[in-house]
Amino acid sequence: MAVLVNKDSKVIVQGFTGKEGTFHAEQMIEYGTNVVGGVTPGKGGTLHLDKPVFDTVKDAVVKAGANVSIIFVPPAFAADAIMEAAEAGIKVIICITEGIPVGDMVKVQAYIDTRDVTLIGPNCPGVITADEAKVGIMPGFVFKKGKVGIVSKSGTLTYEAADQVVKAGYGISTAIGIGGDPIIGTTTKEALELFINDPDTEAVVMIGEIGGQLEAEAAKWYKESGSKKPVVGFIAGQTAPKGRTMGHAGAIVGGKDDTAQAKMEIMRECGINVVDSPAEIGVTVAKVLG
């Protein structure tokens, strides 16, 4: 059991024949991901990496049974690519593209809210279910199969947390990089909820950062859920100056509740095991799983 993607997922790559799409599709196939083809308008009917290329996502759904899509499409066209995938009936859409205009994402969010679809990202590293499917750009060798779920706004901290959990003698069920843009498809709370409801995930690592209310909302939901499944939390950006965007477009301290300290306090109050440094993630997971 895993969340979002597994060995049976039928994955297509939008922007398949481009430089980024080609490089990461190769890595995904090498990992063992069930990539059934890709989409590049105008190149339908050809082969790329020994996989079929389709002109549209609809073609890929009809002819290859695709149900998961990963998007490597330039920012100006990425919103259309997301909506095309949703309209075609893709159930899980993972958008790696960075720099999509906020106005475009407002339209995307309104569009996908009317459909039975899960969007991860944009500006994210993707999703990996250890030893089953890598639908993203993360280094697959870091992730070993186990019972710890990861939800993170930060790509690099996703890999760091996974590495520590594995070195502590545990493994990863699924890791979800939700992205750090102001508007994203899946929130921290929604990703946490997937793990809390997954019978094969025994603990969750939740990595957030300054800016916005996503971590506070997730923490309050966790408390209200009454779940006894342990959650280890970390917030990046503890030394960030107020009012400056740090790294991600959504990482900006606006009000007093947006600071790392405020978020960490709320998380602790809600029963989450908060660590002050990312170096403590692995040992803390080992402690809560005993």
UniProtKB/TrEMBL annotation:
Pathway: Carbohydrate metabolism; tricarboxylic acid cycle; succinate from succinyl-CoA (ligase route): step 1/1. GO terms for biological process: tricarboxylic acid cycle. It is an enzyme of class 6 (ligase). InterPro entries: Cit_synth/succinyl-CoA_lig_AS, Citrt_syn/SCS-alpha_CS, CoA-bd, CoA_lig_alpha, NAD(P)-bd_dom_sf, SUCC_ACL_C, Succinyl-CoA_synth-like. The keyword Chaperone does not apply. Residues 4-100 form the CoA-binding domain. Heterotetramer of two alpha and two beta subunits. Belongs to the succinate/malate CoA ligase alpha subunit family. Succinyl-CoA synthetase functions in the citric acid cycle (TCA), coupling the hydrolysis of succinyl-CoA to the synthesis of either ATP or GTP and thus represents the only step of substrate-level phosphorylation in the TCA. The alpha subunit of the enzyme binds the substrates coenzyme A and phosphate, while succinate binding and nucleotide specificity is provided by the beta subunit. HAMAP family: Succ_CoA_alpha. This is Succinate--CoA ligase [ADP-forming] subunit alpha. The gene is sucD.
